[in-house]
Amino acid sequence: MLKQWKPEEKPENEQMKERLDAARARLYELQMQIKEHKIPVLVLFEGWGAAGKGGVIGKVIKNIDPRFFKVATMAAPTEEELRKPFLYRYFREIPEQGKFTFLDSGWMQETTRDVLKHRLKDDAYELRIESIRRFERQLTDNGYLLLKFFMHISQKEQTKRMKVLLENEDTAWRVSEEDQWENVHYKDCRKVFDKYISDTNSPSAPWYIIDAGSRKWAELQVLENLVQSIEVAMQNSARSVPILQNVFPLVKMPKLADVELTGKALSDEEYKTELKSLQARLEELHNVIYRKKIPVIITYEGWDAAGKGGNIKRITGALDPRGYEVHPIASPEPHEKARHYLWRFWTRLPKDGHIAIFDRTWYGRVMVERLEGFCSENDWKRAYNEMNEFEKELTDWGAVVIKFWVHIDKDTQLQRFTDRQNNPEKQWKITDEDWRNREKWDAYEGAINEMLQKTSTRYAPWYILESVDKKYARIKALKIVIERIEKALEEKK
Amino acid sequence: MLKQWKPEEKPENEQMKERLDAARARLYELQMQIKEHKIPVLVLFEGWGAAGKGGVIGKVIKNIDPRFFKVATMAAPTEEELRKPFLYRYFREIPEQGKFTFLDSGWMQETTRDVLKHRLKDDAYELRIESIRRFERQLTDNGYLLLKFFMHISQKEQTKRMKVLLENEDTAWRVSEEDQWENVHYKDCRKVFDKYISDTNSPSAPWYIIDAGSRKWAELQVLENLVQSIEVAMQNSARSVPILQNVFPLVKMPKLADVELTGKALSDEEYKTELKSLQARLEELHNVIYRKKIPVIITYEGWDAAGKGGNIKRITGALDPRGYEVHPIASPEPHEKARHYLWRFWTRLPKDGHIAIFDRTWYGRVMVERLEGFCSENDWKRAYNEMNEFEKELTDWGAVVIKFWVHIDKDTQLQRFTDRQNNPEKQWKITDEDWRNREKWDAYEGAINEMLQKTSTRYAPWYILESVDKKYARIKALKIVIERIEKALEEKK
């Protein structure tokens, strides 16, 4: 696209001034409408070194109230960030509803650099592109306005600008070694940029190539595209989004009603012996995954009072506290609710070699959020695929993802609720909400069945833990965790 | 303390078992009371390498529900963390009310290592100790239970344990180079540890030295001290805390009523000319502070409708967006409210070389929180000193701290409120709360006067911006920011 790309003709000075004034004024008005319509706007600036990304961002934000935007400069990933999935540090930066985030270079630069430095080839590149496409689509599907600008200058112009910057000690730091390398290898870079741009050009998140040879003209192109896109986004803000067909291999799951619960029990003695030997094994494995830098994500969903907490404790009992974290998931706080619903999970991912246990999870989207109407029908119907994609991201990164449904029947729940109510030490565990949820048992059962059918992928299948006898469920969980970790180690060999 | 320290006699096996059972059961009960009493518990484990810090933490947390605690392993600070004040990464980890955080080594280890590696000497060490003392006192004053354990073993025992760990490839990673260095230099280390422990031993956050020669015995000592301290903390949870006398040099401030507002105005022309030249100067300075890695913190407080937003915009208008951030401060979210009130500011500090602008600040504590009764009288009275200490921390780190009070009179406010109400584009800026606050003008004025008198320190003085003419206030703010940065650069020479 870049090589044969012809810029629009630059307007005359007078016309430029008029159009600039109009676009600036319009953006100033639109910021309030963005806020009102609760649209989050993510603006990505990519482009050549010294093309003036920072400068244009500086101009654009002059028209926006400082409370409504954030600028993030994405330098090379830190060591800590390299221990998370590629998208982690970008997902972390997505704006709240009604606000702007401007990114000074982002996932394009990181990707193209990896290609140019031969760190990312062939299949790995394809995987990366797929994951970027999914990321961008998930944002726009969930109401984000995503704008991607590529600031384009010629090699000659770049050489000239760098020279000027390097001559002054207060501006010399702006020219990195990477920038200088880029200038020398301009043609190679252009080829890689070109391929990346066409690989990630999509109707919902198209690329805008900006002729950045003149600063004013660059500002005008950015502003006009920004204003126009916001206007389109506002008209579309209530639209429904296509629900994608599942493309991931699924594992067949039974209906909950068909899960045999009776007979799934252990004697105290069997339990004690098994627990001890399984925990010892898991403790060993924890050391190995730490050393081999394999991340493990264990998620728990289940009926109230099914015994999630006690089950988790039998897992963590075997783990070195420096290598795992339990994340209890309650209703989202305001700053979480204002973002993509997966944001609070992305930001809680473990480092490689660590274990993260989620006590309730992203599946709230298709259970409580669905049934209580906290999101639209279009939202939760889309979510099955979005969550499969999320878990694909995790397993591609190398994570072992283990999803438990802790299962009991309705009578068992009643008995446990009553026990809790009558035991002063356990009363904190039972709330009015638990009783209200119980009344909706049948609706939940339907939703859960649908969830299990649609999100049990081969790379991240669901496991049902029969938990009428909690001991049985705990031993089963431990066995599955051990088996899955052993398998991952086997495959890594 | 360590050299001449005599451990308590280790109990016989049977008695040990009994006491362990009792302490474990008691901790299990206490976790719920901690939650009920909303006490945050921070447990710091320091000590010799291979003394078994991780192991004891692992034992202790077995008695606590995974939803109520977090374990944080504090490795050496990352490059990013080194660009923040020393305490930043510890303050970030403090627990929420009703929860535990266990730190696997912390500010003691970082400090003693700096001493042993000759990175921290004499005055710098004294400064560090002072800052640690203030940090610990601020936590306990604000209702935190802070427990500090030092896990003690002999050189011989340490040598033996390291040998065992190093022999197995799955445990060898646990022995760092630092640990091995420590073992060889045991006596030097003991001297430095000793001094640190006595320097930071205080009644509200005393050190507990744990005889860690035997694992069970170590666990018992920790558990018993933990349980006992929690019980004491619960009895004290409603107590008032001594209000410390100010020890920082203060700058005399006028009463608001005596601030002359008339005549503080600029013509449009004067304004335009000055604005242009001052912004150009600030733009230059921004490059210099970036290069010299000086952090700048600019805070705005002021009457509603005094013109804070527009004032901030004139500052940011001169700044490179990659080097600053504006933090609008609204009421705290639940996870923020559940922590020390300065937590949300600590976690928003800029990196060195960057500028952070706070639109409303920590001074909410002695204004809205005081007047609306969101904190106790003891709390806000203590806060003046706590905030002086906080800003001392920032300036000791090297930050330029500039605090603005944007000032107007009551009539001007009424006029601006009415303007906003009548202008559809500005209506979002005015809320019922603004009108309610206006009714409390006199109470606020009293609180603000007290705040200005008590927190205008020589290192972080308040500046009053007369803002009946907003242009005047903007130019004054720019001049002060420039002057303060120039002064800091001069001093750094």
- Main interface pair? A-B, 47 and 47 residues
The CATH class of the largest domain in chain A turns out to be Alpha Beta
- As for the number of domains of chain A, it is 2
| End-to-end distance of chain A | 42 Å
Q: What is the strand tally of chain A? A: 10
Second rung of CATH, namely the architecture of the largest domain in chain A: 3-Layer(aba) Sandwich
Strand arrangement within the widest β-sheet of chain A reads: 2-3-1-4-5
Output the CATH topology of the largest domain in chain A.
Rossmann fold
β-strand percent of chain A reads 5-15%
Order of helices and strands of chain A: HEHEHHEHHEHHHEHHEHEHHEHHEHHHEH
Helix segment tally of chain A: 20
Molecular structure report:
Two copies of one chain form a homodimer. By secondary structure, the first copy, chain A, is an alpha/beta fold. Chain A folds into two domains: 223 residues, 3-Layer(aba) Sandwich (Rossmann fold), CATH 3.40.50.300; 237 residues, Rossmann fold, CATH 3.40.50. Helices cover 52% and strands 12% of the residues of chain A. Chain A contains 20 helices and ten strands. In chain A, the strands form two sheets. In chain A, strands 2-3-1-4-5 form a five-stranded parallel sheet, sandwiched between helices. Chain A has a five-stranded parallel sheet with strand order 7-8-6-9-10, sandwiched between helices. In chain A, α5 crosses α9 and α12 packs across α20. The longest helix of chain A has 25 residues. The first copy, chain A, starts with 12 loop residues before the first helix and ends with a helix. The relative contact order of chain A is 0.12. The model of chain A has no long low-confidence stretch (mean pLDDT 94). Chains A and B meet through α1, α2, β2, α11 and α12 of A and α1, α2, β2, α11 and α12 of B.
